[in-house]
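Write out a sequence, fold above all:
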Amino acid sequence: MSKKIFILLILLYISSKIYCGEIVLDGIYQGKNLYVLNPFSSAGVGFCVYEVTVNGKVTTDEINSSAFEIDLSLFQFNIGDKITVVIKHKDNCLPKVLNPEVLKPKSTFNIVKIEVTKDGSLQWTTTGESGSLPYIVEQYRWNKWIKVAEVEGKGTSGTANYSVKVNLHSGVNKFRVKQIDYTKKPRMSPEATFKSLEPPVTITNSKFENEIVFSRETMYEIYDYYGNRIMKGIGSRIDISSLKKGDYFINFDNQMQTFKKKK
């Protein structure tokens, strides 16, 4: 091997080691730009970042500075469009994206309509979604809001329709949906109410040794004396043979009661 070829291979190897790192940001366009802190390279010559691409296209931003802006508006994205930003940098240095949260989905939905149908479905229509986030469906039972379902949001700015089967209790039922984005602050819908004409569920057995029997299928929870939830589900019977002797709290239908496990 000649000396020139050997030196060339060494230079190629060094080059591959210098230009070897990248930061990949996947997200949703929210109408805001990214800001990057760009340190000097470890060699002390030039800056750390050497290329930035957005959805595979090289940006024209001025990156040869200690801080720069990735101008996403130049790509003419629509709010809610999916984007991938790749920041390529030299080895032994690391740029920092100051505001990566601007690419995370934000809860912006508007409720056009929300209702409970006679067949026991919660249906809602939205507009203005700017990214796909799950809708958490909650029902007001036993003096608290409890999660009963989760539906993935469509993330489109136009009209979106959703439907989920819910378990109704006797009397007036209340439901709502919410989303929680990166801010950790829930965005709530208005409440939807529905009055069920079904009679209240009752417990039909008087001795609590091996099971609890309801007059019909219902959602239930059982708590021990210290307030720890130990059982939950939907059914017309509960097997309590494994419970220890003692006092328990039981929530079912829209009622809260206590019972004593005999043995």
The chain has one helix and 19 strands. The two ends are 88 Å apart (CA to CA).
